[in-house]
Amino acid sequence: MRYAASIDEQGNRSVKHLAPRLAVAVAWSTIAISAVIAGSPEEDFRAGLSAFNGGDFAKAMRLWQPLADRNDARSQAGIGFMYHRGLGSKPTTSRRHSGCARPPSKARPRVN
Q1: How many CA atoms lie within 13 A of 68 on its CB side?
Q2: How far apart are the C-alpha atoms of 57 and 86, rounded to whole Å?
């Protein structure tokens, strides 16, 4: 046999051509399967909505956050509502903003 990539005496192609083609086929298959598994933004939003309606606010937050980061308005609105109601996140120890002014302190301000 003169060339490794040539056809042998029986008319079969060399295995050297098979390996690169097989690698490309595996790469494309991996990409296609990962796209199917990841789910569409619509499916992710609906899964988050289902979690929200079921009371699993942490799961809804986890599903909606990547969508909100990609400017999905419905997910942003859902997250905003959950923050407004204090759902899906741990309460902070700092004072929450209630929209009201701070009560006056007992000390009188100094006038110069």
Answers
A1: 15
A2: 10
| Domain residue ranges in the chain | 15-85
Instruction: Using CB atoms within 10 Å of the CB of residue 69, give its burial: 0 to 12 exposed, 13 to 18 middle, 19+ buried.
Output: exposed
Q: Which residues, at least 6 apart from 63, have a Cβ–Cβ distance to it below 8 Å? A: 44, 45, 47, 48, 51
Q: What is the pLDDT of residues 45-72, one digit of tens each?
A: 999 999 999 999 999 999 999 999 999 9
Q: How far apart are CA 45 and CA 97, in angstroms?
A: 29
pTM for the whole thing? Answer: 0.49
Q: How far apart are the C-alpha atoms of 61 and 58, rounded to whole Å?
A: 5
Closest C-alpha to 66, from 55, 75, 74: 75
pLDDT at residue 91 greater than cutoff 90: no
